[in-house]
TrEMBL record:
<dbReference type="InterPro" id="IPR011990">
    <property type="entry name" value="TPR-like_helical_dom_sf"/>
</dbReference>
<feature type="repeat" description="PPR">
    <location>
        <begin position="263"/>
        <end position="293"/>
    </location>
</feature>
<dbReference type="InterPro" id="IPR046960">
    <property type="entry name" value="PPR_At4g14850-like_plant"/>
</dbReference>
<feature type="repeat" description="PPR">
    <location>
        <begin position="162"/>
        <end position="196"/>
    </location>
</feature>
<dbReference type="InterPro" id="IPR002885">
    <property type="entry name" value="PPR_rpt"/>
</dbReference>
<dbReference type="Pfam" id="PF13041">
    <property type="entry name" value="PPR_2"/>
</dbReference>
<dbReference type="GO" id="GO:0009451">
    <property type="term" value="P:RNA modification"/>
</dbReference>
<feature type="repeat" description="PPR">
    <location>
        <begin position="395"/>
        <end position="429"/>
    </location>
</feature>
<comment type="similarity">
    <text>Belongs to the PPR family. PCMP-E subfamily.</text>
</comment>
<dbReference type="Pfam" id="PF20431">
    <property type="entry name" value="E_motif"/>
</dbReference>
<dbReference type="InterPro" id="IPR046848">
    <property type="entry name" value="E_motif"/>
</dbReference>
<feature type="repeat" description="PPR">
    <location>
        <begin position="492"/>
        <end position="526"/>
    </location>
</feature>
<dbReference type="GO" id="GO:0003723">
    <property type="term" value="F:RNA binding"/>
</dbReference>
<feature type="repeat" description="PPR">
    <location>
        <begin position="131"/>
        <end position="161"/>
    </location>
</feature>
<dbReference type="Pfam" id="PF01535">
    <property type="entry name" value="PPR"/>
</dbReference>
<protein>
    <recommendedName>
        <fullName>Pentacotripeptide-repeat region of PRORP domain-containing protein</fullName>
    </recommendedName>
</protein>
<keyword id="KW-0677">Repeat</keyword>
Amino acid sequence: MIYALRLTKFLHSINLSSSSILLLNRKWVSTNSIQNPSRRVVNRLQDHLQVFFESRKNGIYPTSEFALVSVIKSCTSHLTKTSGGEEIHCFVIKSGYDSNIYVQNSLINYYVKRGYIDEARLMFDSCLKLDTASWNIMVAGYVKLSRLEDAWYLFEVMPERDCVSFTTMIMGLAKNNKWVESLEIFREMKVVGVNPNEVTLGSLISACSRLGGSRNGDMLHTVAIKAGLEAFILVSTNLINMYCNSSRLADAKILFDEMPEKNEVTWNVMLNGYAKMGLVDLAKNLFDRIPVRDLVSWSTMIDGYVRVDRLDEALGIYRKMVSDGVTPNEVTIVDLVSACGRLMAIDEGRQLHCMTIRTGLECFVFLQATLVHFYASCAKMDLACLQFEVGCKDNISSWNALIAGFVRNKMVDSARQVFNAMPERDVISWSSMIAGYAQIGQSGRWLHGYIHNKSIPLNDNLSAGLVDMYAKLGSISGALEVFQQVQDRTTTISPWNAIIYGLAMHGHVDMSLRLFSDLQRTNIKPNSITFIGVLSACCHAGLLDQGQQYFDCMRRVYKIEPNIKHFGCMVDLLGRSGRLAEAEELMMGMPMKADIVIWGTLLAASRTHGNLEIGERAAKNLAQLEPAHGAGRVLLSNLYADVGRWDDVFVTRRLMQSQGLKKSPGSSGVM
C-alpha cells in the first residue's frame, strides 16, 4: 500500500520516471491507485498508458478488471493514431478478461469513440453476456454517426431500456431534425414508466422549440415542474428559448426572473428573444445587467439594433465591443454592413469594409456577397461590380447579390445580362429577377413561362415571389392563379403572406380575410408578417372592431408579441375612427419608441378630426425625430389653418423658412 501512496504523490508532481521505477519494483496490484479514479489520482491519461506499456516490458501486468477498464478508458480519451487500444485488446483476450462485462463495455466504447462502429458491432455481437450499458453504448455510437436505422433497430430489440436508452434516441432524432419522432419516443418512455432526467427534457424542449408548438412545450414544462427538474439550468434555459421562439416573451421573462442561477447561455437566450422581436430598449436594459458578456451577447445586441434600423446605436455597441477587447466575427460584420446598406450609410460601410481587409475577414464568402449588396444598396454599382470581380465569383451568393443590386437600381437589363451569364441559378436568382420586373412595372410573365417550360419546381419561396410580382403589377387574377396552384402543397407561410398582403393592398379586403380564415384551418402557423397583412386589410376598410380582434388573437392565441408595424396598423385604425386619445395611449404603452411613421399617422389623423392638442404633441415628437424634413410642420400648419389659427400658421411657416425646411416630395406606386 505504501508504494501505491508514493506513486500517487509522484503522479501529482508529474514525475513519470520515478513512478515507472516504483512500478518496476512491485506487482501491478500496487498500481491500481493510478488506474482507479476513485482514489483521487490526477487524470494524467497519457501517463497511464506510458506506465502500462513500460510495466509490460518488465513483465508486470494488471491483476484486476478495474485496472484494465481504467487503462482502456485512458486509450478512449487519448484518441491518436497510436492510442494503444488494439494492443490492449489483444492483451485482454490473452489474459482471459474478454468475458468480463466491464472490460467488454470499455472496449466497445473505445471502438465507438474512435469511429470504428463496425468493429464495435462485431465485438458487441460476439459477447456472450450483455447488459443495458452495452446496448446504450452501441445505440449512442450509431446516433453519433447519424445511422438512425441501425440505432432504431437496436433500441427496439433491447431487452431492457433505461433513461439513458430513451434519452440517447431522443437526442439522436433531434440532432437529425426528426422533432416529431423524438416526441413520440418520449410518449413511449412515459407509457413504460421510465422517468426522464434533465438531459431528456432539455432535448425534448429544443425539439418543441424547433417545431414551434406551444402545447407540447407547455406539457414538458409541467413535466419538468412535477419531476423537480425545472431547477436545472439546462431545462430552464431551453424553456426560455422555446417561449421566445414562440413569441411568448412574457412567459419567458417570468421563468427567467424566477431562475435562482443563470449562466451565459441563459442571459443570451433572453437577450436574443427581445432582440428578435425588435424590443431593443428592453434588450439593452438586460444587456447592461449581464455579468459577463461574451461575443454572442455583443453580437445579439448589435443584431437587435440592426433589425430596427437603429444603426448609430448598433455602431456604438460595436465600438464599445472592440474597446473592451472582444473581437467581432464575420457574422457581426455581415449584420453591420447589411444595416449600412439598408440605411445607405456609405461612409460607415466603407470603414467596416476596410476593417475586414485589415483583419482578414474579407475572405469569408458570405461577407463578400454582403459587400456587393452593400455597395449596390448605396447606388454605387461601379463599386459593387468591382467587389464582385475581386471577390469569389464561384459563389452563387455574390452573383445573386449583384443581380439584386441591379434590380434595386432599376437596371433590369444589366440584371438580366448577369442572370444569363450565371454558371448556375437557384431560387434566389429567379426570385430577384421576378422582383425586378415587378418593381419597374413590367411583366415578368416570360420568367414565369420559362420556369414552367423548364419544369423548375415551384417551391414556397419562388411561388411567393410570383404571387408578389403579380400583385404589385395589379394582376390579382395572376397572383391568385399562382397561389391556387401551390395552395394544397405549400408547407410554409410565405405564399400565404404574399397573397393575403397583396389582396389587402388592392382593396380586396373580404378575400384577404377569407384566405386568412382558410389558413387558420391548416397546419401552417401564421407569423408576425401574416398579421401585418391582416391588420393592413382592416386599415384599408376601416374595420376597427375586426382589427382589434385580430390584434388580440395574435397575442392571445398565437402568442406573437406585436412589433412596431403591428402597433402602427392599430394606431392607424384608431386614428381613422377618430379615437385619437386611445391611439395616443396605445403608443405610450408600446414596449418600443414610436417612429416617424407612427407619429406622422397620429398627426394626419389629428388634422382629419381637428384635434389640435394631440396634433401639436405629435408634431413636436415628429420634429424631434426628423428635424431635417418639414412634412410634420406642413401638416401642423394645415391643422392650424383648419381651426382658423392663422397666426400659428404664419409662425410655423416662417420657422420652416428660417430653418430651410421643405416638405419631402411624395411618391406613389402600385403596391
